[in-house]
Amino acid sequence: MNKQSGIHYLREHREAASSRPVPAEVTRIHDTVVAGLGDLLQGAFDAVDDSLFELANNARSNNEQNRYFEAMREIRIKRKGVERHFQNAVAQFFANPPHAGQLQTPDATQQASADTLSLVGNDDLEEQVALNAMITKAKAHFQGPLIQLQARFTEVYPDATEEVPVNPMAPEHLCSAFTEAIQALEIQIRERLIVLKQFDRYVVSNLGMLLDEANRILIQAGVIPNFRFHGKAGQQQKASGKPAQGEAPKTVGGEAAAYEQRPEDTALFDQIRQMLALQRANSGLPPRSADPALRVVGGPELADMLNSLPSYDNLQDSEDLSTGKPVELDLRQIVQQLLARAEGPDGRKPALNEVDEDLINLVSMLFEFILDDYNLSAPVQVLISRLQIPILKVVIKDKSFFSKATHPARKLLNSLARAGIGWSSSDEKARDKLYGQIHNVVQRILNEFDGDVALFETLNQEFEQFLERENRKASLVEQRTRESERGRIKSQKAQEAVDRLIKEKVSRYHLPEPVHDILINGWSRVMFLAYLRDDTEHRWHETARVVDDLIWCLHPHEEDEERDQWVRVVPALLKTLRAGLEEVSYNASRLDQMMGQLKHELAEAFRTNAAIEARQDSPEEIEEEAPTVHQTAVERQQELEDAAIAEYVAKLDDIEIGNWVEFKLVNGTSFRCKLSAVIEEADCFVFVNRMGLKVIEKTRVELAHEMRRGRLTLLEQGALIDRALNAVVGNLRTKTA
Q1: 28 membership: H or E segment, kind and range
Q2: How far apart are CA 243 and CA 332, in angstroms?
Q3: More confident call, 285 vs 152
Q4: Distance between the two ends of the chain, CA-based, in angstroms?
Q5: Which InterPro entries match (predicted)?
Q6: Under a CB-based contact definition with an 8 Å cutoff, are residues 49 and 227 in contact?
Q7: Is 660 helix (H, G, I), strand (E, B) or coil?
Q8: Which of 91, 99, 457, 464 could bond to 408 as cystine, CB 3.0-4.6 Å?
């Protein structure tokens, strides 16, 4: 790539590193990130090697095959240099972090014009497109952790401000560092794109765990522990556009025709009518038809009146219908106002018949439940609240809405509520396709519904097709999230097992420094990989036995049989150590030095028959010296905690994969997420958002504590109208009992 073309690269004259010391918490993150990126980059280059070998194997000509083999050879020779260059560049970012966007813009002298763009070669352009796509995808997938990390790094670095933020781990910086590092590879554009593709797949796509770890370290250090993203909620509240109570919704006029219904279609409504009639009888009200001064208005006439209502929403099509609070309409008052304007020439006052009056009461009760339903996300609740008049027009024409779960309007309302359950707040609406689709559905009902229920059928089909596409994409992302988390948990358990075993063996003796160094800083990585591959290669016990053999060889051996065994063991031991360390790409020059020192220590131990000294202060003895009173107090406190959360631990078994929950933070904010996986090895629950991206993970005990403190709420996912009808019927039965 031409460095003068304006494509992402690390600038030639990078600013010198600051002489000020790097904050301690940043140093911890630097060590973790550089090591983690190094491991991920090794996987990427291994995949590049496999890809090029497969392409060479399937090549259609000798020239093409030689081209791929030459690229493999070039990458293998310069791989270590590229890895070292990349890690040094990343380390430089932590020492002297560039400002946000600093690496994305070309030099000031390079303006985006037709003349300058013509200087960019086709190869450079292809590479630039691939790099931009990689960065854009990473920013979208890890948006939440990146925002938090930028805020925390800006707080830590003394020269950074909110106007000039910094983030050493920003995807554009890491991708630019890698692009600069691979400039040393003399390969053609096709092979270069393969390298970038594998870097995206193995490094960039797995940045999430490193971002989470960096955030965790800064949180532990007290850097913005309770992060809260401030969106446009305040502006939305100021410009809520909420209609005044009693205003009527916007509708388009239309004719309402009579609708013949079967008895089974109106069974539930007839049952509710009986309970309402019993309430009227208890109150002593006479039936409307018995009063000769009243003219009873039937269903079709009432539907025509509702169609003639003026707009109750002053919002235009382009504006947001979900701003403000849910619309609270008094349907009875609205209908009474319509009746007051419909007095006939005979002087009789128009009045509703009992059937339509019961319909209005029932729709009012349904929406009272909907507006109080905590399970509905706020934007969807506001949108559905605007459908009170259209739904009233539906039930006046078609009373099977209450009895038939397959009624088009009922299905559509249930689908809207179910699809929007994952929203935590209205901050994400502007960039959310699903919100735009729901908003469009409500807008079309308000503008187009004229009494023909077929509109709901059409909208429901379109919405279900949209949901199917969105859910398919979210399922793929969620699957990758689960696999990533399972891999991370397995890696964490592997590291814990390695640390525990080596600590146990090393802590018993005063080992020579070279031996201690090679076990802690070198062989532990071999054991880590062996633990991960144990299911297929079964090398874990072999790597642990190497530690035992090495320590045994440093013990005194006076018997001829033991010394003969020592002579047989040491060459194979040294060969195994070197092979294992080379396999994990241990520093070559450092490896030769360490192996030389190790040979010297082993030879000295054999020649002088010296013993490695056992430690006096073993961990077991330290534990025995601990105060008994303190242990008892800790145990008593633990027993109280276990007893307090025992009932909540049992309740967690009710949470199934796919269930939605809401977490409340200590700062008053909340977010919703879905249980995606329960990783049994660590008893860990992984939750994702609507897009399938991980948002939080908790152990069973941590979740029980959250539930006990009232910070975890299980959301009901049953059909909205079904739950509302059950609540209404239950209330009526209680009142008429």
Answers
A1: helix 24-57
A2: 17
A3: 152
A4: 82
A5: DUF1631
A6: no
A7: strand
A8: 457
Work out whether strand 349-352 and strand 294-297 pair parallel, antiparallel, or are unpaired: parallel
Q: Where are the alpha helices (DSSP H) in 507-587?
A: 513-518, 524-532, 534-537, 540-553, 560-583
For the ranges 221-225, 232-236, 636-640, the one whose mean pLDDT is highest: 221-225
Find the mean pLDDT for residues 393-420: 87
Q: Report the pLDDT value the prediction gives residue 75, as an integer from 0 to 100.
A: 92
Which phi and psi angles does 5 have, rounded to 5°? -85, -10
Q: What is the DSSP letter of 205?
A: G
Phi, psi (deg, nearest 5) at residue 667 = -85, 5
Q: Which of 681, 719, 718 is nearest to 699 (CA)?
A: 681
3-state secondary structure of 521: helix
Instruction: Report the alpha-carbon distance of residue 523 to residue 529 in Å, rounded.
Output: 10
In the 8-state DSSP scheme, what is residue 166? B
Whole-angstrom distance, CA of residue 182 vs CA of residue 176: 10
Q: Tokens representing 243?
A: 């209609």
Residue 650: exposure state from Cβ atoms within 10 A (0-12, 13-18, ≥19): exposed
Provide the pLDDT confidence category of residue 264 given band limits of 50, 70 and 90: low
Q: What one-character-per-residue DSSP string does 33-96 give?
A: HHHHHHHHHHHHHHHHHHHHHHHHHT-SSHHHHHHHHHHHHHHHHHHHHHHHHHHHHHHHHHHS
**Torsion angles phi and psi, residue 319, rounded to 5:** -90, 170
Total-model pTM: 0.52
Number of Cβ within a 10 Å radius of residue 266: 19
**pLDDT at residue 564 tops 90:** no
Which residue, among 1, 39, 61, has the nearest Cα to 192 in the 3D structure? 1
DSSP state of 284: T
Q: What per-residue confidence (pLDDT) applies to 458?
A: 92
The residues, any chain, with a CB within 8 Å of residue 587's CB and separated by 6 or more, are none
- The tokens of 414 are what? 């249930």
- Distances in whole angstroms, Cα of residue 286 to Cα of each of 289, 290, 581, 590, 729: 9, 7, 95, 100, 24
CA-to-CA dists, residue 226 to 667, 670, 713, angstroms = 7, 12, 20
Specify the pLDDT at position 429: 55
Report d(CA 22, CA 7) in Å as an integer: 30
Q: What residues form DSSP beta bridges with 351?
A: 296
Identify the three-state secondary structure at position 104.
Answer: coil
And the tokens for 494? 């592997």
Q: Over range 473-479, report the average pLDDT.
A: 87
Please state the φ and ψ torsions of residue 209, each to the nearest 5 degrees. Answer: -70, -35
Measured between alpha carbons, how far is 460 from 542 in angstroms, rounded to an integer? 61
Q: Do the beta carbons of residue 16 and residue 189 sit within 8 Å?
A: no
User: How is residue 566 written in tokens?
Assistant: 């020592």
Identify the band that residue 226 occupies on the pLDDT scale cut at 50, 70 and 90: confident
